[in-house]
Amino acid sequence: MRIKSSFVAIAAVAALATFAFRSEDSRAQQQAAKPQGPPPVPVEVALAARSEIASVQWVPGTVMARDDARIASEQAGRVASIAEVGDRVAKGAVVAMLDDESLALAMRESESALRRLDSELEYQARQVERLERLKSKSSVAETQLDEAQSRRDLLVHDRARAAIVLAQAQRRLREATIRAPFSGIVAERMAQLGEYIQPGAAVVRLVNTEHVEVRAQAPVALAASLQAGVAVTLREGTRTENETIRAVVPVGDAQSRQLEVRVAIDDESWPVGTAVEVALPLGATEEVVAVPRDALILRGRETYVFKVGAENKAERVVVETGSANGTMIEVRGAITIGDRLVVRGAERLQAGQVLAIKSPVAAAGPPAIARSEE
Prior knowledge:
Strand content: 35-45%
Distance between the termini: 106 Å
Shape: elongated
Structural class: alpha+beta
Number of helices: 3
Helix content: 25-40%
Number of strands: 22
């Protein structure tokens, strides 16, 4: 009996050990199955870089077309056709036509007069030839030959005058068709279909929107630092663009003490008439921290970036922006040169989230940035 009891006890202990082992294994499996926190957020980063900035003064400017004209008629007449507002026309294309029936009749009359003179001149030339042959045989008087030659010479002059009259008639007929002196868009109609206009009256306003520039007024004191080819920055709202000065008109106004600066624009997306600001250089330069534009996040009145911190965790850093140059912009805040900043994937990022960095990119040293002296 004692032996049997011992076997029973041993079996019970083994069963309890097996149950405890299985319970511990189950708990370990359950613990391993539990999530260990959110997965890392995939992002792309770039480095904050050192950049030189030049002090600038922002002045107002306006985008203007280099070719902007009111196309006028050189002839009087009734408008037979005219381009619509918004029509794009090429150089030499018709923008308006006048009723040219009377001009066509005048040209035909001039052509008829010229043909009549050609016939008279041809007859008189033959007459002179006959008299010259008779004169050699002493069969005609000298005065008769002189009169024939004089008549021929007069007809030559009359024909030349008639040719000029015909050319003028042809020119007036051509001018009844009003053509575009340059490519552009019809911005305004100055005359209406069927309206009778006088010579010099404008029919359409034509604006070349493909060749635009900014006209700005700069203080005369900046004349020494302004010249053609100098790089400047344009801005309109949050949009900025780097361009170059095309021309400086070194003639200051006696009252405003301002001179005119023209900035060339290659981008056709600036509408004519847009009010912009132009950063004109003052000369001094210094080093600043610049970050890619894509790193900036704007929420209301606050601007911030996400920096890669310890253990690849996202750190939210509020910054103040300064001047820009291309894809780089000056920032002031807890950002130092070489910091890794999130440029892709930051839209829904939260501070403290672990980051999975896909492609760290070292930002090359950007060109000089313009600092405002507003």
